[in-house]
Specification:
The chain is of the alpha+beta class. It has two helices and five strands; from the N terminus they run αβββαββ.
């Protein structure tokens, strides 16, 4: 399984995402309530003495939410704050995505913001970082 798919599966456990119509990878569904998980094209790699590496990858999450009315936009702010809090809670509980390496940390690295607006919906973005260790191949 890809790391991006591991992040998607991990996010699927978030109780605040139960109302989404679609969760996809590298695509944001046209559905009114949708989430797209995208991997950033850069990563930080620190090599350790034993040859293993600590890798920090950034994923950005795009959420499509209704936003025509002021109350919808206010609700979206509260919704996104809950998701940020959930990510923090998972880090403290050491409940990490299942990927092909040992994960050390998951964190929200950028607070959410409205990145686009349509006639009756808006796109919000939240960035998270996954830090993990990859061992050298023997």
């Amino acid at each position: 399984m890809s790391r991006t798919n591991g992040v998607k599966d991990w996010l699927s456990a978030c109780p605040f995402l139960d109302d989404l119509e679609a969760i996809d990878i590298n695509q944001l569904s046209p559905a009114l309530k949708a989430l797209g998980v995208y991997k950033q094209p850069t990563k930080t790699v620190t090599e350790l003495i034993d040859g293993s590496v600590i890798v920090k990858e950034i994923y950005y999450l795009l959420f499509r939410q209704p936003a025509q009315l002021a109350q919808e936009r206010i609700s979206n702010e509260e919704y996104m704050e809950k998701i940020e809090g959930w990510v923090d809670d998972q880090n403290w509980a050491e409940s990490f995505p299942q990927i092909d390496a040992r994960v050390y940390e998951v964190e929200a690295v950028n607070t959410f913001y409205m990145s686009g607006r349509g006639e009756d919906n808006a796109t919000y973005q939240l960035s998270i970082a996954i830090t993990y260790e990859r061992k050298p191949k023997s």
